[in-house]
Design goal:
single chain; about 160 residues; mainly alpha; Rna Polymerase Sigma Factor, Chain: A; Arc Repressor Mutant, subunit A; 2 domains
């Protein structure tokens, strides 16, 4: 990587890291602590930035692992997407219809029932817009595994929606 600057390369990742941490910990204060710890760890690794292929994937993996540690310590195994504050998100339309809100709520509830890996991959791919390669690097799995987990998650949600 050429000319990596903490200010221009790492700090802009803060919002993404916060959303991921908040999704896992379900606690705003803990999510902020996770992001701070993640940024500190990335800073401490600055002498090895040149050896890291994808600094963003490294930061996401670090954030995810730290958030999972905190959530486990707090005894939280089930997380609800409905509890995540979404006021910072821009709605698709100026006045979302009741049907669209109900569908979004349904998908959120269904995602809650997915295994953690599938939930995280869906979050990173479908909400954060990450590539398969970025997700694989962040989670430490192969791109093929990412595609398989994502396919399984989407298939489960599709089946659940059809049954409803």
């Amino acid at each position: 990587m050429d000319n990596i600057s903490f200010r221009t390369t790492v700090l802009p990742l803060g919002d993404r890291l916060f959303r991921l941490a908040l999704r896992i910990t379900m606690n705003r204060a803990e999510a902020e602590d996770v992001v701070q710890d993640t940024l500190l760890k990335v800073w401490e690794q600055r002498s090895q930035w040149e050896q890291i292929d994808n600094l963003e994937a490294f930061a996401i993996a670090t954030c995810r692992n730290r958030a999972l540690d905190i959530a486990k310590r707090a005894g939280r195994n089930t997380k609800s997407l409905d509890e995540v504050e979404t006021s910072h998100l821009t709605p698709l339309t100026s006045q979302p219809s009741l049907e669209a809100r109900e569908q979004l709520s349904l998908v959120r509830r269904l995602m809650d029932d997915l295994p953690e890996v599938q939930r995280t991959i869906m979050l990173l791919r479908d909400i954060e817009g990450k590539t398969y390669q970025e997700i694989a690097e962040a989670l430490g799995i192969s791109e093929t595994q990412v595609k398989v987990y994502l396919h399984r998650a989407r298939t489960k949600i599709k089946k659940w929606i059809i049954n409803i």
